Fold 3-keto-5-aminohexanoate cleavage protein.
Amino acid sequence: MSDKVIISCAVTGSVHTPTMSPYLPLTPDQIAEQAIEAAQAGAAILHLHARDPSDGRPTPDPAVFDQFVPRIKAATDAVINITTGGSTRMTLDERLAYPLRAQPEMCSLNMGSMNFSIHPVARKISEWQHAWEQPYVEGMEDLIFRNTFRDIKHILRVLGDECGTRFEFECYDVGHLYNLAHFVDEGLVRGPLFIQNIFGILGGLGPDPENLVTMRSTADRLFGRDGYRFSVLGAGRHQMPLLTMAAVMGGNVRVGLEDSLYLGRGQLARSCAEQVRKIRRILEELSLEVATPDEAREMLGLKGREAVAF
């Protein structure tokens, strides 16, 4: 089992907007359908954000999450992973509103405050479907995603200690690994660690293959090779090449329309499941086995699907 690869799928996120792809899932029905299809294609973990069904903007509203999360659980045995990142425009209380209510097996946790932006993308778009999109994308140039040490400590306590939720530790730079090591040293984080290394976001590490090696070797020094499981997220066109490299290095992989809208050069992905199926084909061509949801639960020490509050 230790050699099996966990496929995570981030279904919609809060970065891309409706104008950027007609296939981006926005409504609760669309999010549920794409998540279920991704699980059927081989995703063991489903990473979920919510969107306002009227215009597709990101929302932290628990009532919207409730329209698709229980439906996904009923239709799949996948691990449901709820964001605590939300978007750069949400307060910490808003970002935690649904996770605290749902008490899922897993939540994402960004390991530091950072500049996080895709504002250059706005230059390539001349017409927008909704009035909120252009200022949302352009406005990222002057926003910071906030997760201070105190914020992270609070999340670890109220979700981890009090709800039994474990975390996908999102690390966008080498310093984020050291932040995680700090919380391990403080006794606030206990293994097994699941570290999501993220490349290609403006404000974080670039998508150079050498950076993947740097993150892997740094994590080895900080946690020991057997002290963590690492996964890789490559943004945009860097998705499949970096994930293939990660798999060869013994890592796990994350796909989904949150991370990339494309399946190949100039080819929009029509669903998250298309990306899951593609990376699964690559893994199997490399003679690697894909982990089932229950195998992922055992590998990551999760509390189990019956211990959630939805």
